[in-house]
Amino acid sequence: MYQLLRTDSSHTDFRLLINQLDRYLMGVNGDQHDFFDQFNKIDNIRHVVVLYHEHQPAACGAIKEYEPGTMEVKRMFVPPAHRGKGLASAVLTELETWAAELGYQQCILETGDTMPDAIALYKKNGYLSIPNYGQYVGVKSSVCFGKQLKG
Question: pLDDT at position 35, please?
């Protein structure tokens, strides 16, 4: 069983998970880490979900406005020990529900082409490939997705 907590980026358990995510991404992104890291600052993110599995922080994600009507999914992470349990999908669904409650019509996100598990997660949850947006235009290793939300 798990519990979902809606919070913000100041939450201690979210910051704990993000520290693990950043270490993980350093290894995955290699030379490109500094480029991507500049877009992953968590200061003042007001919409964060932390998932607890057996009372331990086991997954997280966040949304922030990209433009009116569109939320961008950020900082999705499940530590390796908790993967394969459907926790990322639970966090993603909660973020989408929250975005819809706030009146947003779609979610967009970016992930790397070196992250097949993330790509599979987003496709499984109904995200479709979209052209790279914003700072990711022209970045060959970026893969962008979008999803219309149910109102």
Answer: 52
For residues 106 and 70, what is the distance between their CA atoms, to the nearest angstrom? 5
- Side chain identity, residue 21: L
Amino acid type, 19: N
Residues in the chain with pLDDT values less than 50: 33, 36
Task: Give the range of the structural domain holding residue 102, as residue numbers without chain letter.
Answer: 2-148
- Give how many domains the chain has, as a whole number: 1
The tens digit of pLDDT for each residue in 94-129 reads 999 999 999 999 999 999 998 899 999 999 999 999
DSSP string, 28-93: HHGGGHHHHHTT---TT--EEEEEEETTEEEEEEEEEEEETTEEEEEEEE--GGGTTSSHHHHHHH
3-state secondary structure of 20: helix
- Check which CATH number belongs to the domain holding 98 and give it: 3.40.630.30
CA distances 117 to 3, 11, 68, 91, Å, are 23, 26, 29, 15
Nearest CA to 9 among 35, 48, 38, 36?
48
Per the rule left: phi > 0, alpha: psi between -120 and 50, beta: everything else, 44 is left
